[in-house]
Specification:
Blueprint (H helix, E strand, L loop, with lengths): L3 H10 L2 E6 L6 H8 L5 E3 L3 H13 L3 E6 L4 H13 L5 E6 L16 H11 L4 E4 L5 H16 L5 E4 L18 E2 H11 L4 E4 L3 H10 L4 E3 L7 H11 L5 E6 H6 L2 H9 L4 E7 L2 E2 L5 E2 L7 H7 L4 E5 L2 H13 L4 E8 L9 H4 L2 H13 L1
Parallel strand pairs: 1-2, 1-3, 3-4, 4-6, 5-6, 7-15, 8-9, 8-10, 10-11, 11-15, 14-15
Antiparallel strand pairs: 12-13
Helix pairs in contact: 1-2, 1-6, 3-4, 7-8, 7-13, 9-11
The structure holds thiamine diphosphate (TPP).
Enzyme class: lyase
EC number: 4.1.1.82
Pfam family, one: TPP_enzyme_C
Length: 367
């Protein structure tokens, strides 16, 4: 293992001074380390944005790298192939290897992408090198040397990073000091809308929902980060008689923000879009999102939602849920949530298979 500081310093020694990315816990250390120094790391909403901002910085003359989880490769393939490869821009990408080498040891949403990651890069003729957990500074330097050769040939190399290859560091962030615990907010929302079909976003929100409000009408969306509200829209449009509650995260909503406009345009009267805004990607170690400078209610209203509010207390949240159910939507309810404390409850997929989740949700919609 190399430390987070060694990772960043070896790259900086080679002139890589501009980084972007979307967190994976594998990169918690470097992101935390870089975030302590202004201008070193741009937190991106999705992996494609991360690559594109790095491409812009490369055009601007900087040496750049990005960090991502391999589940986000799909978000990045378009700008990788049509921008970075087409214009031969020199960017170094680090991707974690969830679901690799043995998909059975990871969560189900990584099963396809784990073994596919190297093959996918091969299929677009992108060079890649692997940093293993047992590797130290010497091996990492050798990998960077190989990557330099790729860059010199105007290719954009990837380094595949095994779990445990880079050390951790504590993320500095700016949490809300007023707000509700996430699990409490989920309990209040689901109790206020007992008839609703619920879509729970990926990460800790799904785990909290499974612990405090499991029901057959809850779809636990592990993976497909950022798509909970689009799934919710599809459900709401096909079942206009049923209230639909989306439990979203700030990082997840920011990842595919265009869904706000799609929802505003389709205007499903039965959709309540709840955003648990803790200003961080808590599920991957608490790296800051950019929600502190973004107004979700402002965006939702501008996108055509019928109403949008912020709550940070139980009474306000109860009132917002009552109003949202009494008037046609779509409604956005943004809840300021506090950092989670204590051990996280288990994932839904520890007890249910993905097919169980699908089937019981479908049957519940038919009832
Ligand atoms: C495309 C993609 N990129 C990255 C990840 C890794 N990931 C899983 S959960 C998560 C954080 C989600 O943040 P947020 O929506 O704010 O919820 P919180 O974790 O704070 O509850 C990330 C980055 C992922 N699952 N998919």
């Amino acid at each position: 293992m190399i430390s987070a500081e060694e990772f960043c310093d070896l790259l900086a020694d080679r002139g890589f001074t501009f980084a972007s990315g979307v967190p994976c816990s594998h990169f918690g250390g470097p992101i935390a380390h870089l975030s302590t120094q202004a201008g070193r790391y741009v937190p991106a909403p999705n992996e494609g944005n991360a690559l594109a901002v790095a491409a812009g910085a490369a055009l601007g003359g900087q040496r750049t790298y990005v960090m991502l989880q391999n589940s986000g490769l799909g978000n990045l393939i378009n700008p990788l192939t049509s921008l970075v490869m087409t214009y031969r821009l020199p960017i170094l990408s680090f991707t974690s290897l969830r679901g690799w080498p043995d998909p059975a040891t990871d969560e189900p949403q990584h099963e396809v992408m784990g073994p596919a990651t190297p093959k996918l890069l091969d299929s677009i003729d992108t060079p890649h090198h692997t940093l293993y957990a047992q590797d130290g500074v010497e091996e990492f330097s050798a990998i960077l040397e190989k990557a330099e050769k790729d860059l010199a040939e105007q290719r954009a190399p990837f380094v595949l990073v095994e779990r445990g290859a880079i050390g951790k560091a504590t993320a500095a962030n700016d949490p809300h000091t007023e707000g509700l615990p996430a699990s409490e907010a989920i309990r209040i929302v689901t109790a206020a809308a007992p008839q609703a079909a619920v879509i729970a976003t990926t990460g800790f929100t799904g785990r909290d929902t499974f612990a405090v409000a499991d029901a057959p009408g809850t779809f636990y969306m592990q993976g497909s980060m950022g798509h909970a509200s689009s799934i919710g829209l599809g459900v709401a449009l096909t079942h206009p008689e049923r209230p639909v509650v989306v439990l979203d995260g700030d990082g997840a909503l920011l990842m595919h923000l265009g869904s706000l406009s799609m929802i505003g345009s389709e205007a499903p009267a039965n959709l309540i879009h709840v955003v648990l805004d803790n200003r961080v990607h808590e599920s991957t170690g608490g790296q800051a999102t950019t929600s502190a400078t973004t107004s979700f209610p402002g965006m939702a209203t501008a996108a055509g939602y019928a109403s949008a509010v912020v709550c940070d207390r139980e009474d306000g949240l109860q009132a917002a849920m009552s109003r949202a159910q009494a008037t046609p939507g779509p409604h956005l309810v943004c809840i300021k949530t506090l950092p989670r404390t204590g051990a996280m409850p288990p994932r839904a997929t520890n007890a249910l298979s993905t097919l169980d989740i699908r089937d019981r949700f479908r049957s519940d919609l038919q009832r």
